[in-house]
Amino acid sequence: MNAVQRFIRSKVLLLTAAILIAAMCLSVLVQGQSQAALNRTVDENSRGLYDVLVQSKAGSGALMQPEIANGGGGISFEQLESIRDLSGTSVAAPISLVSRVTQNLEAPRLDAMDYLGYNAGLAGTATADQAAGATAPNQWPAAESVLSDTAKKYRLTASAVSSDGVSERTLFKSTAEGTLGKAKLVEERAAGGSSIRIAAPEGETGIKFPDPAGGSEHNLFNLSVSLPLSPEVTESVVAVDPVAERALLGSAGDFLAPLEKAPPADARNAGAIGRHFESLFTNGISMDELAEGPDFLGVKLKYWAPLMTQYQQAKRNGQLTADSQAIPLIVRSGTSLDLKYNVKIEEIDGSGKVVNEVGTASRSLDKDYLPFVSKDPFALSWPGSTDHSSLLGSQGNFNQGLYTPATWSTDFAAAPKYTDGGTAANGAVEKTAVPGEWVTVNRLPEKTPSGGPVDQTQREPVDERSYRENLDTGEKLAAPLAMVYGTFDPSAVAEAAGDVNRLPLGGYDPTPFTLSKDAEGKDVTATELKPSLSATGLASQSAGAITDYYGLAAARGYKDNAPVIDAVRVRAKAPGSWKQAQPDVEQLASEIREMGLEATVVAGSAREDASIFVPGYSKDGAGKESALGTVQQSWVRQNAADAVTGSLTGTNVTLLFLTLCGAALLTGASTVSYIRKRRTEAGTLRAMGWTQRRIRSWVLEEFGVGAALLAVAGIVLSVASWSLTTVIVSASVLALYAAAAFFAAQQLRHRDEVDQEPQHDERLIPVDSPLTFANRQLSTNKFNTLSLAVAVGVFGAAVGGLIALLIDIPRAAGASALSGLAAASVALPSILLALSGVIVGLVLTLVTGRFELNAKRQYLGILEAMGWNPDMLRQVRLFENALVGTVALPLGVLGALGIGLLLAPYAALWAGVAGLVAVLCWIPIATKVVQ
Amino acid sequence: MTNETNVHRSRRSGSVEAPLQTRANTIVKAEDHGTPLELSDITIRYGGGKSGAEAVSVVEGFDLTLHAGEMHCVAGRSGSGKTSILTVGAGLTLPTSGRVFWEGDSLESMGDDEIADRRRALIGYVDQGGALIDGMSALENVLLPAVPDGEVEQRRDMAKDLLDLVGLGRRMRHRPAQLSGGERQRVAIARALILGTRVLVVDEPTASLDRASANRIISILKDTTNDGIAVLVASHDHELVRLSDTLTELI
Q1: Could you tell me if the ipTM is greater than 0.85?
Q2: I need a surface site. Which of A23, A239, A779, B160 has the fewest CB within 10 A?
Q3: What is the DSSP string of A406-469?
């Protein structure tokens, strides 16, 4: 029988070699794959839209506040140009907070269907123009109305409710009463013909809310009741360089293209532009042009109405001066502001008693809302009404415009302040928001459109907490004229910024807050906070408008070359992944720092949730302030990529090391098993005249076959993976195996056994039960017992390690979003590696458990022959395993704790518990399995 | 294995008087002197079944009635089924067919626990070579059968007497590794007698022993029959065959 045949016959050696090769393959492949996946994930997600964030002053540590456009300025245009001139710069996109703008929505109205049917005198002109989409006269439906022929008395209760996502607030509640009825057409003879007019029914008083609301009036389709004004809404405006911003955002920045055609600074005189549009309308403009928007220097100004409304009002009020500038704006479409307007309609009798609940009409400020523009009339519909006004076709409903021109202000323009708190085990940072002064919202305008006084008592102003500071910047200029060039969708901008490494793009891409704990610290259902009415609250919505830097100067009153740029986002020319570009990016940042600016390398960063405690958020009627609780907001973790890679690589290497330790133990156990099996054979050979040298060669030849297999596997794996780690692992395994071979050969030497008398130690516990019998067996075979206990302990420790890993991979990776992705990419390979450790531990228990299997079988047979019943034999096995488990317990628990501490300190305790449970579970399972 | 021819030879004369008392203080009452062990039409085959291997018939239609105080020897060449008959008789394995009666009760109607309990009370089994448990002294080995009933301390003196009886009174604290083959065999016999056994089932007690040691074992076995204990022994030792009361020779 040659060495190969003997090797195959020796199942223990074969099994050991197979397991070692499997461990090598698994550890090397898993390690390689895991590390490659980790590097790939980190690389792919570590370079965002820009590489370096330039600001005028130092940040506050490794966690970067997401709000970079804070109105603080600090960077001049010369510095911006210098950055652009650097050889490593690809894009340098400046951004600044321009202002906050307070504006009132158009006058809301309640439309009650009171359709009078087709009448040539009223609708003839419009319906003749079929191109405008009007319906042919013969297709108009019959008249219908929700009102009665005779006027009835109604009570209207108008209210507005706003919510920050946590609690609702009623902003006002106003009531008006009066009689309303169905209108009628009245034909009157006049000179040269007859005229048609719409008349109210007899006895109708109409309904009039307090000024500045108008009254009620009949038209061809509705009875319209003018409602109290909606609350004022505050928006912020940011300034960017349209060309650089488009280069930064890619196609997501195409909405800024019209801004590139806006007139230069010296061609933005508000009066001149207003007069240009006035003459345009005076000279006549077609309906098509009106709908598409009149041409202004190559841009179709679809939203021309606000400009004209503001121009005329400013001119009338004497606000328009030679310094007044028109500011081109791209405005946000829709709003995240939660504002709901309700009108409750009740029919009442003469004494004011309700005789019929007609219903409630509601409308929210939502996607139809455009800052600076009233896209659609803010009309609420009387229950049961049908809107027939479309019969006249599109009217281009921009003529109502804003109620009053927007009020531009630089108050509350700074970013919120936070103070640092503790840092959680996974690196998550705790902070506390610092509230500023209370600001008052929900006020009415000072004058009516006609310039009359407004009854201010109809509203109770609401105090909101400001989280932003006042900034005294620039000179106060004449009222700017908003000129709307287009719209943008903030969600498209957010999408372009990406998720994992979502970097602050500025005020038009704010990061939302999510409430996670209430004021008492109890967990609550995650609720996204809605922006405040005032735009100075904790959560702000995306900017209402974006302008260019000429607009910034015009709104803030800055002179030429003032350092008004808040931040510059710089993308380096260096191509490729984060790692490839890192040296060039660092070089670029260094050159920018030499200009005296703060340059933060944000390539390699990732978003990370900061827990922010919010005190003094609201106050009740008695003035008592209440905390909001804890909110989560994504900030930016600098150097997250390095941290994640380092931490998870450490986990991988530790796992590999532990697997090798398991393989070493397994090799040792297998070698012992081999020695025990071959000792008799060696004695026989010796009796046949074999020398010790010959016996050693005989043993080493067998091991040599296994070593050759391991070497071949190691070489193949090393060449295939081309990695130093693989070479080290393969060499380690081979060295282990060789050491085991020499140990085995050494142990098979002949030893004279001396019969030692006296024989029995009286200190031993007498055998009088299955427990004491089991104890005696284990104490007699100490080596076997200890080997098995070590194996069970290793198994317990491996299970503990696995549990620690499962619990702690996300924590080990850190708290950033990149950590989550990176951890997900290595979780499966790492778990496989840890699982292989558990399997090694299990095989180890099987190998060591077989050391004296024949002897065990024999004595169980003897006991059976003596009349020990099956239950007692089971007890013997159970007690044996329990005693082994007792010895293994500290090893398993301490081992699990140790591995836990190595892999995941945070989960070390759980690892210890898992080790304990694994060892305890092994006892009955081993008793059941090993019959 | 071929079918065996059972050659029965009887030297038994007269009935056993009662009561008797062994030198090991085992009381054998008169009413117990019936037929402690009876094998009826025993057939033992190995193999076959799911493995598909051809079944080997070891014993076919074997009958045996063992009376108290009688020594029955099952002789035959190696592999003829001697040990198989003994293990079936001791209730350690089940026959392929046929019935085993202990004191008139069939093992078929007993569960594992009952068989174990009855075996402890009735049968002392001595394995070939006198298998002892390592790590335990000769005395402890002898006392092992008393563990299930919790009678270790009560039986300690009796165990010492039994070891004296088999000539190992001075070696009772020795462990199996320090005993010779014959000594281990004698310890095993003492262990088989500790619970007042009525049937001693002994497998090849003199194999690989020198003549003097073998004779000593034979003498002990013969003495036990004088105490009313039935002995079923498998052996091809001529002296043992000669001294046994009845003989079955397997071919």
Answers
A1: no
A2: A779
A3: PEEE-TT-SPPEEEEEEE-TTSPEEEEEE---EEEE-PPPSB-TTS-B--GGG---EEEE--S-
Token reading at A736:
């282990």
d(CA A198, CA A183): 7
Chain A contacts of B180, Cβ < 8 Å? Answer: none
**B95: preceding bond cis by omega (within 30 degrees):** no
Instruction: State residue A473's pLDDT score.
Output: 64
Give CA–CA dist A223/A213, Å, rounded: 15
B9 bridge partner residues: B247
Rg (CA), chain B: 18
Q: Give the DSSP letter of residue A130.
A: G
Segment among A16-25, A146-155, A442-451 with least mean pLDDT:
A442-451
Nearest-CB residue to A867 (from B117, B139, B174): B117
Q: Where would I find the beta strands (DSSP E) of chain B? A: 9-10, 20-21, 27-28, 37-46, 56-66, 71-76, 97-102, 105-106, 123-126, 199-203, 230-234, 246-250
Residue with tokens 């081979």: A734
pLDDT at A888 over 50: yes
Subunit contact A865:B191, Cβ cutoff 8 A: no
- Tell me the whole-structure pTM to 2 decimals: 0.69
pLDDT value at position A1? 66
Distance from CA of A880 to the nearest CA of B (A): 15
> How do residues A448-506 score in pLDDT, each as one tens digit?
766 778 878 778 788 888 888 877 666 767 778 889 999 999 888 888 877 777 778 88
Tokens of residue A159, six digits: 């209210």
Q: How confident is the model over A841-863, as a mean pLDDT?
A: 80
For A871, the closest of B113, B150, B152 (CB atoms) is B113
As a whole number, the mean pLDDT across chain A is: 84
Higher pLDDT, A931 or A566: A566
Is the four-CA dihedral A770, A771, A772, A778 of positive or negative sign?
A: positive
Answer yes or no: do A759 and B113 touch at CB < 8 A.
no
- Dihedral angle sign, alpha carbons of residues A787, A792, A795, A800: negative
- Residues 6 or more apart whose CB falls under 8 angstroms from that of A812 comprise A647, A648, A650, A651, A823, A903, A904
CA–CA separation, A619 and A757 (whole Å): 92
* Close Cβ partners of A926 (under 8 Å, ≥ 6 residues apart): A845, A849, A881
pLDDT value at position A687? 75
pLDDT of residue B81: 86
* pLDDT, mean of residues A328-332: 94
Instruction: Report helix, strand or coil for B204.
Output: coil
Provide the b/e sequence for A660-680 (b: ≥16 CB within 10 Å): bbbbbbbbbbbbbbbbbbbee
- For A865, which of B90, B121, B152 is closest by C-beta distance? B90
Contact assessment for residue B166 and residue B200, using Cβ atoms and an 8 Å cutoff = no
Interface touch A862/B148, C-beta < 8 Å: no
CA gap A395, B210 in Å, rounded: 128
Q: Is A867 in contact with B195 (Cβ distance < 8 A)? A: yes
Query: Between residues 770 and 799 of chain A, which touch chain B (CB distance below 8 Å)?
Result: 770, 773, 776-777, 779-781
User: Which candidate in B87, B127, B133 is best for mutational testing of the A interface (most A CBs within 10 A)?
Assistant: B133
Residue among A756, A757, A759 with most chain B CBs within 10 A, to mutate: A759
Q: Which residues of B touch A (CB under 8 A)?
A: 90, 92, 112-113, 116-117, 119-121, 123, 125, 127, 131-137, 139-140, 143-145, 147-148, 150, 152-153, 173-175, 177-178, 191, 195
Most A CBs within 10 Å, among B144, B152, B179, B191, to test the A interface: B144
- Chain A residues whose beta carbon lies within 8 Å of the beta carbon of residue B173: 758-760
CA A711 to chain centroid: 49
